[in-house]
Amino acid sequence: MSHSPSLVPQITTDRDVYLVLDDFGRRLGRAWCETAEEDANRATLLRHLAEGQYLHPARIVAFNTAEGWSRDATAEIADELRRRFVELEETDPSLLEFLERAARR
Questions:
Q1: Conformational region of residue 78, where left means phi above 0, alpha means psi within -120 to 50, and beta covers everything else
Q2: Total domain count, the chain
Q3: Does any domain span residue 9?
Q4: What is the pLDDT of residues 2-49, one digit of tens each?
Q5: 38 lies in which domain range?
Q6: What does each C-alpha distance from 96 to 43, 60, 68 come to in angstroms?
Q7: Does any domain span residue 62?
Q8: pTM of the entire structure?
Q9: Is 8 inside any structural domain?
Q10: With helix as H, strand as E and coil as C, how does the chain read?
């Protein structure tokens, strides 16, 4: 009999996880983006947003199951990206749209 892969995460340290709700348009709608476990951290999320790896990021959620909390981190991430914006020479249009939407929230 074959074994199924474990559903338990391999990284068991107490850490914050960040997930992105991306808007794929009217036809496909919104979906939580698949993210590799090692890439669900704040630094990687900020880099992926700056690189334009999301079509139209609508919301960012952060959580930590070991500490038992979750929160909408959209405004917080947008504020950090705005602070770093001066450092970014070329900015993907999806990032600019995200920053505009987050400012209106």
A1: alpha
A2: 1
A3: no
A4: 676 665 556 556 899 999 999 999 999 999 999 999 999 999 999 999
A5: 17-103
A6: 19, 15, 32
A7: yes
A8: 0.74
A9: no
A10: CCCCCCCCCCCCCCCCEEEEEEECCCCCCEEECCCCHHHCCHHHHHHHHHHCCCCCEEEEEEEECCCCEEEECHHHHHHHHHHHHHHCCCCCHHHHHHHHHHHHC
